[in-house]
Predict the structure.
Amino acid sequence: MKKVAVLLLLGVFFNICQAELAGIRHWVLQQDLETAYESIHKSLEENKLFVVFEPNIGKNLAAFAERWGEDYNRNNLQGIRSMVFCSGWYANQVSNADPQLLALCPLHITLYRHNDMTHVVFVSPTHVGKGSDATVLLQQLEDRVSAAVESGIARVQQ
């Protein structure tokens, strides 16, 4: 309970916004995309959530700009980057509790830039695994990821 209170206070203090959509954790910050990305990457790694793949989705989509024409990037996003990450320990524990939830492995977060604000979005494991035997474990994992993201955000907003 103390951890949740601290996270809420950090959210208010650092102007971090939470989810608008059910099952999506959402943070918004003024920092540029690349600086936020590097800080959150470092924080995930420090929390033993190891980044295994780093797709630059915005760059990949840009290759289709001509082909898609006016359908390309209608929201005028200024960048989209993702981090695919994993904790071997959590993957093992999830597989022991409910193998179907291996669909969450590996986890990922996506950062995008829109209207000079950087957004960080993360699919909530507890939302996906609602009612599963792994619910308590998923809450721990979600709290760990959220704390790492918020620590990375706090580092660049000091």
Remarks:
- Residues 126 and 135 are 6 Å apart (CA to CA).
- The chain has one domain: 2-156.
- The chain has a mean pLDDT of 91.
- The longest strand covers residues 79-86.
